[in-house]
Amino acid sequence: MNTCELRDAIARQQIGWTLEAPFYTSSALFEYERRTWLADQWFILGHVSEVREPGAYIVRDLLGESIIVSRDEEGTLRAFYNVCPHRGSRICEKDGHGGNLVCPYHAWTFRLNGSLRSASALPETAEVGKLGLRGISVREIGGLIFGSLNAAPAQLDAMRKAAEPTLNYHGIPEARVAARRSYPTCANWKLVMENFFECYHCYPNHPEVCSVLEALVDNQARKQTPESTAQWLDCMGRWLREEADPHAPALEVIEQQRAQFYNFLIGCAPIGKGFKTASRDGLPIAPLMGKMTKFDGGLRSLVLEPFVHFTCHNDHAVMFQFNPTAPELTDVIITWIVDGAAAESDVDIERMVWLWDVTTKQDQVLIERNAAGVRSLSYRSGPYSLIESWTSQMVARYLKGFSNLCQIEQT
């Protein structure tokens, strides 16, 4: 699919309808996305506890690229392609700690700020200052590490200002990783994100989520009416007045940032049913996080469309990562985070991971079944339901941003 064909395919799309099959299956389209639109998006690369001390580094995959995230000698967070500028060898294979990064091929040695420290037998004409590692954009916000292959770090300034009070109140910068699991899903990233952005499928497929997050699901999985909206606002109002931690930062902040690419949302909501946290029985599974003064039965969420989703419960936080790795392969990674002072014996790992582990495995089946259908010769675009408005809006923003990129490339 060349640029002209892609532009024509975008023009054919009906607002509020699913995409044509090539948007979900085409290798050429995915490679074009990877170099352009996807490279402009922001992703969560990790948690600050993984590179808290100078000398620490982690190796992560982003859009099929191996990335090194490091804390240099001066304490500055850095991120680089894991590619030696000598002959292109992979430098690091796993997380580590040390003063240097050493390429295993010819022992070129790099400082943790990416600059070349030493390389033997270089010609006199070689400009050492230009032989450092190639960097990518990275930002540390409230204990979360964000990365993008192309986007400018300043793009996240507005989100940082809005998000840091909530993240700091929950102690995310001082927290630690308690568990992490990966769910490789054989489907295009758009099918994965379309599923994640809607709860139309929740009642038929996610009994656990419907049971635990009752109030939230009831609001998101039914067609909105004036009566249901009033009921939800009443539920929110009572929770904020009677149960919510009175010292927690004010939420319900919605900001538009470069709207043709992404939206961000910071919000709060009650879990419902008198649950203290998102466990099977609603009972605590770890000590309170950060500055929380009580179990208030709520959750606070940070969303940076389309790939960043982070939820704070009173006693743990859940970090969702979505990494498109191939035309029909998306790695979904979930990390569970607890208070930094929480003892191992005070954290019930299995009860903590239960909800999103079982739900994501259910989603794997649903999404891969969806991907199989999209490959069929009989597949045609269909209308999103009124309950899938967030998914529909996400797809519309993707099309608008992608269309703008196609026009720029054509000129």
Question: Would you write up a description of this structure?
Answer:
The protein has helices at about 5-10, 20-25, 25-35, 155-170, 190-195, 200-205, 205-210, 215-220, 225-240, 350-375, 390-410; strands spanning about 45, 55-60, 65-70, 75-80, 95, 100, 110, 115-120, 135-140, 145-150, 175-185, 255, 260-270, 300-305, 310, 315-325, 330-340. The chain is globular, with a radius of gyration of 22 Å. About 30% of the residues lie in helices and about 25% in strands. By secondary structure, it is of the alpha+beta class. It contains eleven helices and 17 strands. A hairpin with a 4-residue loop joins β15 and β16 (about 315-325). The strands form four sheets. A seven-stranded antiparallel β-sheet has the order 11-17-16-15-14-13-12, with helices on both faces. Strands 4-3-2-5 form a four-stranded antiparallel β-sheet, with no helix packed on it. The protein has a three-stranded antiparallel β-sheet with strand order 1-10-9. Mean pLDDT is about 95; it is low at about 250-260.
Task: Provide the descriptors you would attach to this structure in a database record.
four-stranded antiparallel β-sheet; Rieske Iron-sulfur Protein; 411 residues; single chain; 11 helices; seven-stranded antiparallel β-sheet; 31% helix; Naphthalene 1,2-dioxygenase Alpha Subunit, Chain A, domain 1; alpha+beta
Shape: globular
Low-confidence stretches: 252-262
Q: What is the CATH C level class of the largest domain, in words?
A: Alpha Beta
User: CATH topology of the largest domain, anyone?
Assistant: Naphthalene 1,2-dioxygenase Alpha Subunit, Chain A, domain 1
The percent of residues in helical segments reads 25-40%
Radius of gyration: 22 Å
* C-alpha end-to-end distance: 18 Å
The strand line-up of the biggest sheet is 11-17-16-15-14-13-12
Question: How many domains, in number, for the residues?
Answer: 2
> Topology as H/E string?
HHHEEEEEEEEEEHEHHHHHEEEEEEHH
Note the beta-strand portion.
Answer: 15-25%
The whole-number mean of residue pLDDT values reads: 93
From the coordinates shown, what is the CATH architecture of the largest domain?
Answer: Alpha-Beta Complex
The largest sheet, given as strand count, sense and whether it forms a barrel, is: 7 strands, antiparallel
Per DSSP E runs of 2 or more residues, the count of β-strands stands at 17
Total helical segments: 11
Structural class: alpha+beta
The CATH superfamily of the largest domain bears the name Naphthalene 1,2-dioxygenase Alpha Subunit, Chain A, domain 1
